From TrEMBL:
<feature type="compositionally biased region" description="Basic and acidic residues">
    <location>
        <begin position="289"/>
        <end position="301"/>
    </location>
</feature>
<feature type="region of interest" description="Disordered">
    <location>
        <begin position="285"/>
        <end position="308"/>
    </location>
</feature>
<dbReference type="InterPro" id="IPR035969">
    <property type="entry name" value="Rab-GAP_TBC_sf"/>
</dbReference>
<feature type="domain" description="Rab-GAP TBC">
    <location>
        <begin position="20"/>
        <end position="212"/>
    </location>
</feature>
<dbReference type="GO" id="GO:0005096">
    <property type="term" value="F:GTPase activator activity"/>
</dbReference>
<dbReference type="InterPro" id="IPR000195">
    <property type="entry name" value="Rab-GAP-TBC_dom"/>
</dbReference>
<feature type="region of interest" description="Disordered">
    <location>
        <begin position="251"/>
        <end position="273"/>
    </location>
</feature>
<feature type="region of interest" description="Disordered">
    <location>
        <begin position="1"/>
        <end position="21"/>
    </location>
</feature>
<protein>
    <recommendedName>
        <fullName>Rab-GAP TBC domain-containing protein</fullName>
    </recommendedName>
</protein>
<dbReference type="GO" id="GO:0031267">
    <property type="term" value="F:small GTPase binding"/>
</dbReference>
<dbReference type="Pfam" id="PF00566">
    <property type="entry name" value="RabGAP-TBC"/>
</dbReference>
<feature type="compositionally biased region" description="Acidic residues">
    <location>
        <begin position="253"/>
        <end position="262"/>
    </location>
</feature>
<dbReference type="InterPro" id="IPR050302">
    <property type="entry name" value="Rab_GAP_TBC_domain"/>
</dbReference>
Amino acid sequence: MDGSRVPGEDAASSGAWHRTRDGGSRREAWVKIARDIRVPNHYHALLELAGETPETAAQIEKDLPRTGATFAKQGFRLNPGEPTWRALRNILTAYAAHDPETGYVQSMNFQAAFLVLAGLDEEDAFWCLVALVTKIVPGYFSEGMAAAKLDQRVFSRLVHQHLPAVGLHLETIAPDNIVPAIISSQWLLTLFVNVLPAGATMRVWDRVFESETRAPLFACALALLEPAHDDILACDEMGETVELLQSLGQETQSDENAEEADNSAGGGAEDAAVRDADEVANVSLITRKNSEKTAEKHDTDASFSSASGKEDALIARMDAYLAGACAPLSFLKEVSRERGRRRRPSDDGLPEAVKRAVPAVTEIDELVDGLRSDLRDVVGEGALARADAE
């Protein structure tokens, strides 16, 4: 048994979440994302720097009990003195030393704990956390949160494209992208940890690690919204709408866990969002105070007979989006279009990694590409290359 698992029958030690639906090892599958960034002995060297940032260490110590309380409902023990407690502290401390520009940001604690819950030892979990922050959601936790704001706009655009009535209704209730910003900050910044039950989130993360993109997060978001179409359109006020949207993830779990999940969902996202999204965070905090009423107000989807059936239906819808509108290449193209066609001042703060991965594409760029494609069909690739050379 490795040092990051707790003896006993809790979820972490029993392996409840260690394997995928087809029996594969999550640890073996997920760590592949870090194959090109992993540096031997780097993790242990980082741990030797612990204590050089006392403010960060104090914040991590403050967040550990909160993390433990949140994950207790998943059968994951995180108590002072236990191996998982030390492992999580080490992972977060090492990350803060590894990336001092970003440092430790609240909500990383939930993601790191989720990696341990999936069966990764602490060093593997550290490198997967690095990969999540730098490859999957680069810039989400940087000062200014420019990449997160860009993806909020992409999310809103996808809703308008694929659920047009919902998109128009959200815009009518609250202009300036406020409602999609609130919801996407809670869903995307957390990577759905504490939004969905652990089993469903594990399956979302399986697809994130397999594709090595964040496209599955957007596919999952659309999959959550789709069956709630009529309920969303029935909402008349922003607070009521946000309250409904915050409850959607709960509808994939059993009723007895709904209230507990409701109380913890979205907390990490709010903590991160307040850094440069005060208006969104304040509205989110206000609406979240009413979220305990959600489980009583909204019945679970009558078309599913069990929590497992609801989860399977959600994943099926997500996979359908991943095969079409949210296929990784299509998703990246949509991000490029958002950067090129609807540029915002906040885009100036995008990390270089984001700019390289999704260069801005304007309508003129796409028109030129279309004309080149037509010419290529007519004159052939060779003739077009010779013309370019001249």
